Amino acid sequence: MPYKMPVSVLVVIYTPDGQALLLERADHPGYWQSVTGSCEPGETLRQTALREVREETGLDAEKYALTDWNLRFDFEIYAEWRHRYAPGVTHNAEHVFGLELPRALPVHLEPKEHLNYRWLPCAEAARKVFSWTNAAALEKLPLS
Known about the structure:
Elements: E1 7-14, E2 19-25, E3 32-33, E4 35-38, H1 45-57, E5 65-76, E6 91-100, E7 114-121, H2 122-128, H3 132-139
Parallel strand pairs: 1-6
Antiparallel strand pairs: 1-4, 2-3, 2-7, 5-6
Helix pairs in contact: 2-3
């Protein structure tokens, strides 16, 4: 299996009435997050965001307002996940996108990746996620 690239996207999916979608990780029950994923070779950040939303939720992000927030977080990769990256890679560059849906929609989870999903008020979602970058992104929503 090839190593993951240390460049990823985080897609905050939200509604005009202030709800945010969170997914519970299958490999770490109790860890909640927005849609995330690493870029594949040759992919643009937008292509990665579109692919990850489709893979993780079944939603076609091209049907809605997907925006690049021009926000990047650099963080240290959790030790438990570092084996997925080339030897010596310790940090990741995460690029934030937002996806506004007209209302809270049902999603279709990839069971190998996520166990459950919840729509929560943005401020509550920011407190529930395990990642500081995810919390910071959720707090950028004007609805928080």
